[in-house]
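Two proteins were folded this term; both appear here.
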Amino acid sequence: MLFHVVPLAEWATGPDRPYRPASLAREGFVHCSADAAGALAVAGAHYRDVPGTLLALVVDEGRLTAEVRWERSGAGVFPHVYGPLERAAVTAVLEVRRGPDGAALELVARA
């Protein structure tokens, strides 16, 4: 399973179409993490000041039609999806619970 962090408002647009984040047009791929801990680290590092609800999409790599490449980025190796995320590949949508300072604390099932 892969994890992708996204603001709720962005995920909610176009629910009948594959999800295409801005990074796909800008960089050619969708940034993902290999596990929940990685998703929390991404949320804390890149989304701390983003207002509103943050989600972590749990993506079944086997259901994607796009190519997934594990590539070095900074000090680690991360999965990059070279195409849109089909919504049928998303097996769960978790909420990123954040502290008062915006720090990502945990992933929880959406109520």
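Next, the second protein.
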Amino acid sequence: MINKIEQGRDEPPGPAVLAAGLNVRRGDRQVLRGLDFAVRAGEVTGLLGPSGCGKTTLMRAVVGAQDRVGGTLEVLGRPAGRAELRPRIGYVTQAPSVYPDLTVRQNLDYFAAILGLARGARRDEVGRVLADVDLTGHSDALAGNLSGGQRSRVSLAAALLGTPELLVLDEPTVGLDPVLRRSLWALFHRLAAERGTTLLISSHVMDEADRCDRLLLMRDGRLLADGTPDELRRRTGADSVEDAFLALVEADRDRTEPTGEPRR
């Protein structure tokens, strides 16, 4: 795999994710409404907004798991959902994706085999990701006997296998204690800085916003703002990202009808 950091010395990499007029419908409901944004390569981008605003739908579209997608959506320079993108993307859903009757190590060895890693390389790779998520001491425990937070970390470890170029993480820190949350955010930034990994991380917890390089703020399937935490605070005159988000929501309400459609 080309080292993204070294590649960037010659020419800046294009965006890891590029959307233009992105729409998603579910039944008669418009879930995503004309989103335009770019996720910069090698950065930690936070996707923030209240539950039900469309964050998970957007992430499913990015990884190619969402149907009825309209507009343009490119991922790592290819149309989203292309088969060749699968080994280049790690995806963690809100619900842990593990086999409860297998040990942690067996789960990871199985997922490594699916990725096509040779048997001789799998042991070292599994050991690396176990250390990344601080589960080395639980490697021989049945996944079904772990806590919810530990199972979530097994899912994260599986997504880290094979050193993906893009990590799409749907609320990976929900239910974790503050010490572990801080440790995982340190890991996310280390992946970006040392491996050139791009991370798109959703959360509805506003105090995690300042841990991100850039933010996409969503409400009701629309993008309210795109920028760094400092840019959003300056734009709204707020002291915190949470206050900035609330100010943007109020401004959005002022310019829309009760139906959520823009005033004409």
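The first helix runs from residue 4 to 10. The CA atoms of residues 105 and 264 lie 58 Å apart. These notes refer to the second protein only.
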